[in-house]
Automatic annotation (TrEMBL):
InterPro entries hit by this protein: Bact_Chemotaxis_MeTrfase, CheR_C, CheR_MeTrfase, CheR_N, SAM-dependent_MTases_sf
UniProt-recorded name of the protein: Protein-glutamate O-methyltransferase CheR
SUPFAM superfamilies: Chemotaxis receptor methyltransferase CheR, N-terminal domain, S-adenosyl-L-methionine-dependent methyltransferases
GO molecular function: S-adenosylmethionine-dependent methyltransferase activity
Sequence ranges assigned to domain CheR-type methyltransferase in this UniProt record: 9-284
PROSITE patterns: CHER
Amino acid sequence: MDFDRLQCANDSKEALEKLEINLLLQGIFHWYGHDFRNYSYQSIRRRVWHRVHAEKLSTILELLDVVLHDADCLQRLIADFSINVTEMFRDPSFFWHFRKQVIPLLKTYPSIRIWHAGCSTGEEVYSMAILLHEEGIYDRTKIYATDMNAKVLKTAKNGVFPIEHMKKYTKNYFEAGGTVSLSDYYTVSNNGVKFHPSLSKNIVFAQHNLVTDRSFNEFHVILCRNVLIYFNRSLQNKVHNLFYESLGLFGILGLGDKETIYYTEKKDCYEEIVHTQKLYRKTK
């Protein structure tokens, strides 16, 4: 009986916590227009409690009250919701297969448009610029790098990264099929390493929210890697519809290693390019 009462109390506590989180997300949506209601619940829950403690508050409802009256606190919470884990040539085999399987297709186009959706601080964007440069097609490529977080976009646009990361990035670069030395592409300063301006000349950095914003161009390639895992199934389908609308016929969609086109409404509109990689081609 005591166990049953304890279990009932725990269930009630979890239900109340979920209600408070839903109220917070509804309040943000209705007051500010930012929609996080279909993000993965467990992911949102961790970030909400992080912000509660960071603001020296005790409850989620206290956080809601502060957020509704303090736009700066809202921005801090949005930054918490923004996922900014990335590195140059992350998952090197993805970039190796992109070089071997996708680049030959892109070389047939007179001009190329690539969308990096959820680009975070930009390491993978510069990785793609380097790859395209080495394959001789960067000059006819425009890369659109977008994220909902203005702060990380500023970092991406500056193109300055910590020097202590370069050993790992160099290893990734060679495993991804790099042909020279990664250090050829950057200079070292007191602030870290800065990638050469020639790499960013064809990159457009801009804010875009996958949840609320629409398609803004037609692309030959869309890369959105390790972003959709933080969305629930309904929101994943919504974003996949956005990508479908934004890809030209035979366009390439690249996802993260824990993501897939299968189990989405658009699964029958793509074919695998490489069985071991999350690279798909739009076929209808």
